[in-house]
Amino acid sequence: MTFVSLETKWIVALVIAATPGFAWAQPTAATAPGAPKVTGSEHRNDALEDVDLLRLLDVEVSTATKTLETLDDAPAVVTAITAEEIRRWGYESVGEVLRHVIGFYLIDDHILPNAGVQGMTGGLGSESGGIKVMIDGRSVAFRTTSGNWLGTELIPLSAVKQIEIVRGPASALYGADAFLGVVNIITLSPDDIPFVDATGHVGLTKNNPSGRVDAVGGMFTDRFDMMLTAAATLDDRSGLEMPSESPAPRVPAYNEGRTVAENLRRSAAVLGSRLAFRDPDRGHHLIVSGYWSAFRRGGDFAQWAQLTGGTDRDGLPAGTVVNLQQHRVAVDGLLQLNREFALAVQGMYFQGGVLPGDRVDVAGGWYYIERRMSYRGVDANVELRWVPQDRFNVLLNLESVYDQEDLPSFRRVSKETGQTFGSPERERLSAELVDVGALLSANLKVLDPWLKLTGGVRYDHHSKYENQLTGRFGATSHLGKTVVAKLLYGSAFKAPSPYLLYAEPLVPGDVIGNDDLKSQVIHTVDAEVTWRPAASFSASTGVSYSRLNDKAEFVPRGINQTAQNVATQMSVIWATRAELRRGEDLGGYGSFETVYSTRDSGQVGYQAELVGPAMVAYPRWIARAGAYVKLPSPRSIPLELSTQGILVGPRRAADASILENGRSFDLPTYLWWNASLVARNLWVIPGHETTVALRAKNILGASGPDPGFSGFEYPLAPRELYVELRHRY
């Protein structure tokens, strides 16, 4: 590990490469290979205009009619959440969306949520790193932890056309981080961009005021489009109580005896832009886009020490604050070679790290810790697609990702004097991580629509983990007019994050990295059957089996938690879902999933016997339901009532809590209930649409708790009540 110049590595990073979808998921006006050229607003259905995750995972990415493949035809277990559903249910972040998606469960530490998928969670500090989150096909991970930000700081939801979620490994399409699943956020098509579309809300979070704004605007022509978007939020969850189930919270001496959090103030912001130049006749395009995002969150339930907020014994301000930022700039180009061949090239620069407001208060109370960590790098790829006929296409991708990490370091600062003291700050070392990958994928309609086959392999050469081979294969069949069956296999590998490799403990009991970790590998087999007897009704059921080898996570070792490969985890999930929709007047859905999972805990002797092989943190079962109905009301004030509920089954406590408690224990079942009353399509200003909504979340005030990974448990997010106003010009 040495200091290196980023500029000297650009050639390495710009090695031609591609994860499928990075370039192809970008909006464009190009005509798909093998498809006739069109003009005007029809461009938005082109191979690269709306070629989103559904197409990338499907055999017919481009068809003669240039329409997206249906969910039934996509050879993957896919959920699609549209912009209309986001507005109907009142989702304010991608994390909220995932909370209501079958096969997902989020644990919220009130800083960054941790998404588990189909019985598998990432443990302490994973920050939803088991999934790959993308905006228009480009990764948005915070590279140091490989985590994903799922709150307002990720993207303004007003700029989102659709969110597409794939459960299961997808490394063969999206590279090393597409491990447990993929979330691809598709932004607005050019002719969907409004002049201005803004949403704001004011209300209460618990008993504290909260507010949020979210806006998008721009313009488009046949040859040019521009989109600017922004969002910001401010809320305060202070007042939540430390769950009584917590066996060993570390509370500073100055707050001894306190059980209520005073430091859960949260703020976040994101800015985004996109400029596109298009040749509608030849199908070429050039797109430049960029995002900057940051958040600042009180850490009364952070891993280092808990309930640190307020003032210390000397009357000085106290409280852990997590303050991070990241930004990305990308350039995409497409060259339509002829009717059969198209070439897409993309490059992205990314950077992120700690902001000056970040501080960690410790149990001792008379000093705090300033963290230092940052990263920067480049992701470059090129993709060639060949579509000789409607029934067959081939995809060749090459990708290179270069990541330079300034390894985590820290210094101790006296609260009274502001002077640093004790051990000198860790030498600022740097680590380079490079991954070069190649993909070959083919899709074939054998007996359309009776049988579709898809298959692909990806080879990666990682600078630390050398050669990795992953694949995906699937078959989709229409068994008559109303039944669709899928049989799928996928594998993925994931390199441990720099945090797992190089973390140093900030306080006693904190995490310790392990530079000798192996890469993780998962294999998943899915079988799903969908029945659609009518356009208004559908039902599906499916079974998934996953086996994860060399799972890497922090494991309790003495007073600290050390990164280790804990052998294997096996998970089987059965999930079923039904949905009824009768236009805008009435609709609803219900789902149920149950999971059985076993794993190697990484413990030995008595501790291994105590924690056992049972699944931790993920619920044994989850039931979800939602409904909306158009209420009788004056035509000028159309009203809609919508409601959603999640009944969450028992969750086994994490190993750290079990070891502190001296016995295994479960956390209780709870019900999470939301409701909205919405008046939409109001024409307060002639020609401009206005929507007013009254929304309530966690109406029953469910407190959980959810499993923590540092000897204490997390209370659920508190009740929220707010008024929302949306205006579209």
Automatic annotation (TrEMBL):
Gene Ontology CC terms, in alphabetical order:
cell outer membrane
GO MF annotation terms: siderophore uptake transmembrane transporter activity
Question: Does the keyword Cell inner membrane belong to this entry?
Answer: no
| Domain TonB-dependent receptor-like beta-barrel: residue ranges | 290-698
Enumerate the spans annotated as TonB-dependent receptor plug domain: 71-182
Name any one Pfam family assigned in the record.
Answer: Plug
Q: Where does it localize?
A: Cell outer membrane
TM segment ranges: none
Regarding the membrane, this protein is recorded as: Multi-pass membrane protein
Q: Does the keyword Transmembrane apply?
A: yes
Keywords of the record: Cell outer membrane, Membrane, Signal, TonB box, Transmembrane, Transmembrane beta strand, Transport
Q: Which GO BP terms apply?
A: siderophore transmembrane transport
Which interval of the chain is the signal sequence? 1-25
UniProt-listed InterPro entries: Beta-barrel_TonB, Beta-barrel_TonB_sf, Plug_dom, Plug_dom_sf, TonB-dep_rcpt-like
Family statement drawn from the similarity comment of this UniProt entry: Belongs to the TonB-dependent receptor family.
What name appears for this protein in its UniProt entry?
Answer: TonB-dependent receptor
